Amino acid sequence: RYLTMFQFSESPSLEQLRLNHVEFNYNKMKWDNWQTPKNLFLALVGELGELASDAINNETFGITACKDDIDEDMDKENIGVTEEGSKKSEEILNELADVFSYLICFSNECWIDIADVDGDRPAQPVQIFSKVDWNEIEVSAFYRVKLDSNSTFLKDVISLFYCATKATRLIEWVEVERRLKNLAFNKQKELDGHIKELFCHIVVIASKYEYDLPRLLDEKNARVAEKYANSVGHLSKDDIVTTRYGHLPDFQLGISETPQIQFSLSRLVSNLQSDFSVWKILARMLEAHGLIAEMFQWDTTTTCFTPAKRAHLSHQLSIIVNMIMTLAQIHQINLSHEFQRKLRKTERKYPVSNCKGSAAKYDELATQSNDEVSEDMTHLDITEDYLDDMNIKDATAAVFEFVKERDWEQFHSPRNLTLELMEELGEVIEVFLQEPKSTLKSKKKVSSGEKKKEFLSCLKDELADCIIVSVRLAQVSQVDLTAAMLHYYPN
To answer: What's the predicted TM-score (pTM) here?
Structure first.
């Protein structure tokens, strides 16, 4: 349907956009030291966070994709049909252009030909994009990405973030070199597929909301060139962080004794509005995570923090943890029990003897004992010795002990943990976006009760994972998460 409604401009081509990137970032601005895959991916995630923020604040945006179906009695000024509304729509979707811009940069660094949507990664990739018409790309993208035509812009953005998380596990624990030379070919091929899927997702969303991606990205690049005319050889967001968040209180770990926050359901009082949907909660987490990613996107030496940076990180982490606790409350999940259960479950997946000093995933560890560990460990009944009122301080200590035993401190930089948190948030989103696995595998009709049981089982695991990574990121960054949450959520 969308293919008959909107057509992209023929120029500039994808290859021309790539060449413009090389000319501006390398030749003109001398920013080549910062153009590494991990930096660019974090920058892309930061823009996704801004897109999520726009989606939260503009609920009515998105109906413009179905203008022909709009009732004459509807308030057209609020849904973007008027000239003023169309301008607002373009402003919102300019964030999509930023996401796409960093995707081009990332693909250039990793030698991924995103224009060749249907092709496999060649054994000897070349640093050039295929010459393909934009509207041919659009057709291929629609075959590859199944986007719900009736979904809201908010849900489309959440789906886009989930798509991006699929590439995260391939780069999060490795200090990725240029061209990803330290990844095996099968992993390079996997990354190639995930990045192409992300590109297709962007194209489909742009087409759905009638956003002329190539033309408007070209115009936006011209404005960026003018904005950074005096920044040759210099690229840092420290001044932006200080300007935006310098007024926030600094919650440094160990500077004060604070009451502890329990994870138990009975003690949680949410101050969210009653009409705050699950999709808004997810988008709010993505927004906060994007702001954290922006802190680290160009900074590879974040062993210590300025007070402004730590204040900013404290604020955003407190938002993410509060959203996790709120999701647990909505679905009647005892987060204290689930945290302890998941940590013990993870201890069994990663026995010290097999994984000490290694950043490999449990399914990659080439040992006989670990091969016997099933990815689906829900059959394990780990119920002994649960604390009913596990608090953030206790959780932090438990995670630290788990990490220290396995000599994983060497991998736990704030940047790496930010990417790990992105992967875990993506798995939470997956629970809400997709059908339960048993439903997909079984040909028999699955009852609603069985679906709900599997949904809750998956959600419990993923929320617990998010808590584990969040408290670890706070500890590594010297953030007193308890003090921050008591400040921002006094109830």
So the answer is: 0.85
